[in-house]
Design goal:
CATH class of chain A: Mainly Alpha
Radius of gyration of chain A: 24 Å
Structural class of chain B: mainly alpha
Order of helices and strands of chain B: HHHHHHHHHHHHH
Largest interface: A-B, 99 and 103 residues
Oligomer: heterodimer
Number of domains of chain B: 2
Helix content of chain B: over 70%
CATH class of the largest domain in chain B: Mainly Alpha
CATH architecture of chain A: Orthogonal Bundle
Order of helices and strands of chain A: HHHHHHHHHHHHHH
Shape of chain A: globular
Distance between the termini of chain B: 38 Å
Largest sheet of chain B: none
Shape of chain B: globular
Number of domains of chain A: 1
Helix content of chain A: over 70%
CATH superfamily of the largest domain in chain B: MetI-like
Number of strands of chain A: 0
CATH topology of the largest domain in chain B: MetI-like fold
Structural class of chain A: mainly alpha
Strand content of chain A: under 5%
Largest sheet of chain A: none
Number of strands of chain B: 0
Number of helices of chain B: 13
Distance between the termini of chain A: 37 Å
CATH architecture of the largest domain in chain B: Orthogonal Bundle
Chain lengths: 291, 291
């Protein structure tokens, strides 16, 4: 049969990706589902079936509640502060000029820094003996304030750092969308005498609605998987008040090798991601997209 | 709005001019403030590495009174620093090569060959884009342990590649689909098969997308913290994010040393970013806005 190596190509080109993906992505997730019904230390036979016990413990653990609440806070802050900020910046600098390009580069730069390095930089800035608060307290002549160790404010620092690091990323998504808005539409609005504000509000923003929804989706997925930034800043403390779902999973599942319990947290996180992805698809997907 | 008289257009034009002057000022102010907030922490970090601890305490954000080069020099003279960077480089480069290799071949099959099951396989791989790898870290850890790959670079490289596969395949696939069909037909007539076409035409024509995917995979791997954290225990094998956290533990209050260390790791990242930003932005916008 003459097939110019069609079959050979399929059987040669697909397996590397499929095999790697199956072994290191799909199989661990299937395993997590299975392990989550057991109490297991990761050694020896998997025999101690406990049913839903891991999930029950999880549902009753106040630190887990806190970590979920922290993720919700991150999502809200993203939607109410970060995305509006990113959108404002995008509207200010989306046109292609050299000054705009420079600002774009600056705003986007934090995104490519490693989370760990970012966390360290900001743990210096927030250090009560050295950073911003130290300057303020010294100027006022009062005792130093250690916000990173303060239960009421520690999570605020994480929120600040996340806005700082990721608003440029959302801005880039908006800039790409704004640059794709057809010129004649904007010109038509201008000729009709619409003020710049009205053009932004009634023309530009509706035309990039798909990008805003996508950005919101990324913000939610991002909030669900925060980890690297928390470790250098607060390490989940003080008194476990600043855990994210992933840092909770790491400390209460992996470090103590509670395989079953950690897997149960993973399954919950997995379900949250699936729900997010499907609701995004259902309510927001841009018809042309293939995400 | 369509029946404007000349008089009202004139006032409107005047209004716009007036608004645009104050608008320009407000715009410049907003951009400068945000840019300052982005740059200052980075600048303080870089300068902090030149200050004594005493000076850091009193003036963390100023230009150093005396430029002390010895903190930077001590880190640059430390073999461990270079080993961390070297380990990271090996892991990142290997992940990039493996990702480009596996993903481009799989994407080529999906873009070029119609076969039964193609759609299912693509949906299967796309599952990987829906959830963070944190969901399965506990089973993943056990799996890597059972393969005997703990404390082995491969234990980081393989899962890393597997998790960036889905995104890479999506980017490649949409690029390959845009290549002119006539090219394949012409090559086909000349007796070039699928495999030959991939290596002789598709890949050489795909340098922009190879650069984009490669840059993304590199940054992701270079910055990754959680995966090496669970896989690598031996200090000699640490990647730089692990090294920097350990360093932080050792030099608890010697912020100048930590800031110098951070600066030395983010400086190459920022330079790399300036060089490759075209590809990073391309990947971001192609992967997100267009799907």
């Amino acid at each position: 049969m003459y097939d110019d190596g069609k079959l050979t190509t399929i059987f040669l080109f697909l397996p590397p990706a499929l095999v790697l993906f199956t072994i290191f992505v799909i199989w661990p997730i299937l395993n997590a589902t299975n392990f989550s019904f057991y109490k297991w230390s990761g050694y020896g036979e998997l025999t101690n079936f406990v049913g839903m016990q891991n999930f029950q413990r999880l549902a009753n653990h106040s630190i887990f509640h806190q970590s979920i609440w922290n993720s919700v806070k991150l999502v809200l802050v993203s939607l109410l502060i970060q995305i509006p900020l990113a959108l404002t910046m995008a509207l200010l600098i989306y046109k292609k000029t050299s000054v705009n390009t420079a600002f774009r580069l600056i705003f986007f730069a934090p995104y490519i820094l490693a989370e760990v390095a970012t966390g360290l930089i900001w743990s210096f800035i927030f250090d009560g003996d050295y950073g911003v608060t130290a300057q303020i307290t010294q100027a006022l002549g009062i005792d130093p304030i250690y916000i990173l160790a303060d239960k009421n404010y520690a999570f605020l620092t994480i929120i600040t750092v996340i806005i700082w690091k990721y608003f440029g990323y959302h801005m880039m998504i908006f800039i790409a969308a704004l640059q794709a808005v057809p010129h004649d539409l904007l010109e038509a609005a201008e000729i009709d005498g619409a003020s710049p504000w009205r053009i932004v509000w009634y023309v530009k923003i509706p035309l990039i609605a798909h990008a805003i929804k996508l950005s919101a989706f990324f913000a939610i997925v991002g909030a669900l998987q925060v980890f690297d930034i928390i470790i250098p800043l607060t390490n989940g403390g003080p008194s476990n008040s600043t855990h994210s779902i992933v840092s909770y999973l790491y400390y209460f599942g992996l470090v103590q090798l509670n395989v079953g319990y950690g897997s149960a947290v993973g399954v919950v996180l997995f379900l949250l991601c699936i729900v997010t992805a499907f609701s995004y698809k259902r309510f927001a997907i841009d018809k042309g997209g293939e995400l | 709005m369509k029946t404007v008289t000349t008089a009202t257009t004139a006032t409107a034009a005047r209004k716009i001019k007036k608004a645009s002057l104050s608008g320009t000022l407000a715009r410049a102010a907003a951009l400068s403030i945000v840019a300052a907030l982005v740059i200052l922490p980075l600048l303080a970090t870089f300068l902090g590495g030149f200050k004594t601890v005493g000076e850091l305490r009193t003036s963390p954000f100023s230009i150093p009174a005396v430029w002390h080069g010895d903190f930077y020099a001590r880190i640059l003279g430390d073999g461990a620093f270079w080993r961390f960077l070297g380990n990271s480089l090996v892991i990142s480069l290997a992940s990039v090569c493996l990702t480009l290799f596996c993903a481009s071949m799989a994407a080529y099959v999906f873009a070029q060959i119609r076969f039964f099951g193609s759609k299912y396989l693509q949906s299967y791989l796309l599952l990987g884009m829906m959830f963070p790898f944190a969901t399965a870290i506990v089973p993943l850890f056990l799996q890597v342990r059972d393969f005997g790959l703990l404390d082995n670079a491969l234990g980081v490289i393989l899962p890393q590649t597997a998790f960036s596969m889905a995104f890479a395949i999506v980017l490649f696939r949409s690029f390959f689909r845009q290549l002119p069909k006539e090219l394949f037909e012409a090559a086909h007539v000349d007796g070039c098969g699928y495999i030959g076409f991939f290596f002789r035409f598709t890949l050489p024509l795909s340098t922009p997308i190879l650069a984009t995917v490669g840059t993304f995979a590199f940054v992701q791997s270079w910055n990754n913290y959680l995966l090496p954290l669970i896989i690598l225990n031996d200090r000699a094998r640490y990647t730089w994010p692990l090294g920097i956290m350990q360093f932080r533990g050792e030099f608890l209050v010697e912020w100048n040393m930590i800031l110098a260390f951070v600066s030395l790791t983010i400086a190459p990242a920022l330079i790399f970013f300036v060089i490759t930003q075209k590809y990073i932005v391309a990947g971001l916008t192609r992967g997100s806005v267009k799907g």
